[in-house]
Amino acid sequence: MKEQLVLHICCAPDQAWGIHELGEQYDITCFFCNPNISPLDEYTLRLDEAYKVAKHYGLRLVADDYNPLSWEKTVEPYLSTPEGGERCRACFLLRLGRTSQFCKDVSINKFATVMSVSPHKNIKMLNETGHQSAHDQSVQYIETNLKKNDGFKKSTLLSAELGLYRQDYCGCRLSKAESEIRKLNRKKVISDLK
Ligand code: SF4
Questions:
Q1: What is the pLDDT of residues 167-187, one digit of tens each?
Q2: For 69-103, how does the pLDDT look when each residue is reduced to its tens digit (9 = 90+)?
Q3: CB-CB neighbours of 41 under 10 Å
Q4: Atom number of ligand 1 nearest to Cα 121
Q5: What structural domains and CATH numbers belong to the chain?
């Protein structure tokens, strides 16, 4: 019999790859916990896609209550920090903290997160916050590095095969603004080259 694992889901493309990589070893319960995602339409879209993936693999998905104010309050001291900095540490802690609480609620003592698929995430910071959250609830955090061995590239191929929506920003309103600035800068560089 496989061991049970709560898998924190941030988006459907990463979820599909996480299940692909961990599903042989673990009996997975997906937990969608993302109060960071903004705006509401984007949240709803990402959640619908996550349900689609759970159904495809025949797995259970539980969605946490959507509480964007909890995210605003958590990251308030770090609003001026860039993506990858202390704002993200606080964001990881919030989401993985909720995930470890969920583990307790459903009596599963291990969890992991699919956020390690992303090449933009600081894996050391992610693991530190995972272990901290697990320690607080006396459960176990399983470290993953789902981007290794070309994991990110393979995840993009799998999500295309499954016809999944792939977002172009991490999730919060600040990352959306940062992504828009990057796009504008790219356009400017291209037009300067013409
Ligand atoms: S960039 Fe991503 S990880 Fe960082 S605070 Fe925003 S949503 Fe959270």
A1: 999 999 999 999 999 888 887
A2: 999 999 999 999 989 999 999 999 999 999 999 99
A3: 9
A4: 3
A5: 3-193 (3.40.50.620)
Pocket test for ligand 1, best of 88, 114, 178 (most atoms within 8 A of CB): 88
Buried b (16+ CB within 10 A) or exposed e, 6-40: bbbbbbbbbbbbbbebbbeebebbbbbbbbbbbee
H or E element that contains 28: strand 26-32
Pocket of ligand 1 (CB under 6 A): 36, 75, 83, 87-88, 91, 170-172, 174-175
Q: What are phi and psi of 27, to 5 degrees?
A: -90, 105
Tokens of 158: 């799998």
